[in-house]
Design brief:
CATH superfamily of the largest domain in chain A: Histidine kinase-like ATPase, C-terminal domain
Largest interface: A-B, 23 and 20 residues
CATH topology of the largest domain in chain B: Rossmann fold
Number of domains of chain A: 2
Oligomer: heterodimer
Mean pLDDT of chain A: 84
Number of helices of chain B: 8
Number of helices of chain A: 10
CATH class of the largest domain in chain A: Alpha Beta
Low-confidence stretches of chain B: none
Order of helices and strands of chain A: HHHHHHHEHEEHEEHEE
Shape of chain A: elongated
Strand order of the largest sheet of chain B: 2-1-3-4-5
Largest sheet of chain B: 5 strands, parallel
Number of strands of chain B: 15
Structural class of chain A: alpha+beta
Number of strands of chain A: 7
């Protein structure tokens, strides 16, 4: 029952008109339509560029103005029921078209009779875009639900779980208190893994989780693992996808520390710059060393979830230096409410 | 009856895992006489301790930095007599599959005392693993070659090897300092280390990084057969007619 309610809520959602990816899609689609229209209208192929320029003069002002108005009204529109919002948007577009037509009549010497046709084209294009975004939302919403499942499956290597339990067992007799702490950390880690991980979470939570994880690894690896945190310039209220950082640390330990005969440093640097949150993670890397094939699953999984949450506004890149491996995540700085 | 206790060497790169095994061996001690003769945090140390003698069984972790457990087991087989080996692993799908396939004894971490006892009592009757079986389990090229010398195992880091030459029954391993004889097949060595060595002759593989150049043998007129010049070595290695393409590839 809960599922079906959730499902309905998802299908009738407006796109986020302030999201860069959505804006980009609208720009591309509308210009694509203009391109096609000019190709159809042009009397000869050679006349196409001229036709395109003429159409652009009509389309671009309306397009830019629409994007601006929609971005401004975004929150207002989201509060309306879906059908109402759709009607509002179509009316808004028609009004903008009519206004621009009136304003442009003097300048471009537009034919007044062309207004009805123009209104129809705008209504159709707007409708098409809304249908597209609705379909896209439907396609993505099961994926978002699945992200939670994936998060559970691809997280935490069994290797880590069993080695950690083994380490805790070794403590039970000699150092019961440390064993207690370790079990608490393990419980905390698994609680986070099994939680509903669809919503963004404050970065401070994620860091707390990472510290629990690293404490457990330290128990096994001792001096071989050194951790450096650089979080002085981190906005603590920034929101990140849950389990965006911990799997990366797990990769760093598995590929950078465990196969190394000498101690190594894992460094985590989180900072806000303008309206972006940067997360940079470095670990030692030896080109010939690790013969267990690199596990790209965690990276692919995080990249996918970043895309689900932020579309093209977030990115995850990796860089192999001479002796270091670096993962950099950049995402919009979203504040928690 | 055999009353002398089983002498066990514990090998694991993680200190808590070693301490856990020590506790378990003490627990098992009531039913089965065992003593811990040593602990090693890596493969080299394990070979050093085992080489000193007095080890019946090695409890060997599979995933270790530097030299993995399967490689350590292969070097251990050069000892006379070779100790029995029981592998331990927390989770390594590939290794577990290989153990099952070759009917090797292994223990899954966290290890239970009863399982440990079973494995140890089986080991007391069983034979040491076959070198051939271990070789097939090796996933990646070994870090070292090993030669048995006066009851000890001498490790030769593969990076130090200048060339490998097949003699009658042995393969000569040449480093800057000296030569060793190992009982392995040149063809298998070629397959295992194909990134590192190149065949220049039917009986000889040379390290790619050690090649300084090629020259014509003997004459000034430049008509003699090609020879390889290796870093830090007076000796020249002849290139056979069939492997002439190596010279051309190097020239590029």
């Amino acid at each position: 029952m809960a599922r079906s309610i959730n499902h309905n809520a998802n299908t009738g959602a407006l796109p986020d008109f302030r999201n860069f990816g959505i804006l980009l899609r609208m720009l591309l689609i509308v210009n694509g339509v203009a391109l096609l229209a000019s190709l159809l209208q042009a009397p000869a192929f050679r006349a196409w560029p001229a036709q395109l320029t003429g159409n652009a003069a009509l389309v671009e002002p309306l397009l830019i103005l629409s994007l601006l108005v929609l971005a401004v009204l975004s929150n207002l529109l989201r509060r309306l029921p879906y059908v109402m919002a759709i009607i509002c948007i179509v009316m808004l577009e028609l009004a903008l078209t009519a206004a621009l037509h009136a304003a442009g009549q003097a300048m471009y010497l537009l034919d007044p009779a062309s207004l009805p046709r123009r209104l129809l084209i705008v209504a159709l294009t707007t409708g098409m875009l809304l249908v597209y975004f609705d379909l896209r939302g439907r396609a993505l919403s099961p994926a978002l639900a699945e992200a939670r499942l994936q998060a559970l499956q691809a997280r935490i290597r069994p290797h880590f779980l069993f080695n950690s339990i083994n380490a805790v067992l070794s403590l039970v007799r000699q150092e019961p208190r440390r064993a207690e702490t370790a079990l608490e950390d393990l419980a905390g880690l698994f609680r986070a893994l099994m939680a509903d991980n669809r919503e963004l979470t404050p970065v401070s939570h994620e860091i707390e989780l990472c510290r629990q994880y690293l404490d457990l690894e330290q128990l096994r690896l001792g001096d071989r693992l050194r951790v450096e945190w650089h979080v002085e310039n981190m906005p603590p209220d920034a929101l990140v996808p849950p389990l965006a950082l911990q799997p990366l640390l797990e990769n760093a330990v598995y590929h950078g520390i465990e196969p190394a005969e000498t101690p190594g440093v894992v460094s985590i640097n989180i900072y806000g710059a303008r309206d972006r949150l940067h997360v940079v993670l470095r670990n030692p890397y030896r080109p010939d060393g690790d013969h267990h094939a690199g596990n790209k699953m965690a990276l692919a999984n995080i990249r996918e979830r970043l895309q689900l949450h932020f579309d093209v506004a977030a990115e995850l890149t990796t860089r192999v230096g001479e002796n270091t491996y670096e993962v950099r995540m950049v995402m919009p700085y979203v504040k928690s409410k | 009856m055999n009353t002398s206790p089983l002498r066990v060497l514990i090998v694991d790169d993680e200190a808590p895992a070693r301490s856990r095994l020590r506790d378990l061996l003490a627990d098992v001690g009531g039913a089965l006489p065992v003593t811990v003769t040593g602990e090693a945090g890596n493969g080299r140390e394990a070979l050093r301790i085992a080489g000193a003698g007095g080890v019946d069984v090695v409890l060997l972790d599979v995933r270790m930095p530097g030299m993995d457990g399967v490689e350590v087991a292969q070097h251990l087989q050069k000892l006379e007599p070779p100790p029995a080996v029981v592998f331990t692993t927390a989770y390594d799908a590939y290794a577990i599959q290989a153990f099952e396939l070759h009917a090797m004894d292994y223990l899954l971490k966290p290890i239970k005392a009863s399982r440990l006892q079973e494995a140890l009592s089986r080991v007391m009757q069983g034979a040491a693993p076959q070198p051939e079986t271990l070789r097939r389990m090796q996933q990646a090229p070994r870090a070292c070659l090993s030669a048995a010398e006066r009851g000890k195992v001498h490790l030769i880091p593969v990076g130090d090897v200048l060339y490998l030459r097949a003699e009658l029954k042995y393969v000569t391993v040449r480093t800057t300092g000296r030569e060793y004889l190992i009982e392995e097949s040149l063809t298998q060595l070629e397959q295992e280390f194909q990134d590192r060595f190149v065949r220049v002759h039917r009986n000889c593989l040379v390290a790619r990084t050690a090649i300084r150049g090629f020259e014509r043998a003997g004459a000034e007129n430049g008509e003699g057969p090609w020879q390889v010049v290796l870093a830090g070595l007076e000796e020249r290695i002849p290139v056979s007619r069939r492997q002439q393409h190596v010279v051309r590839e190097f020239a590029r």
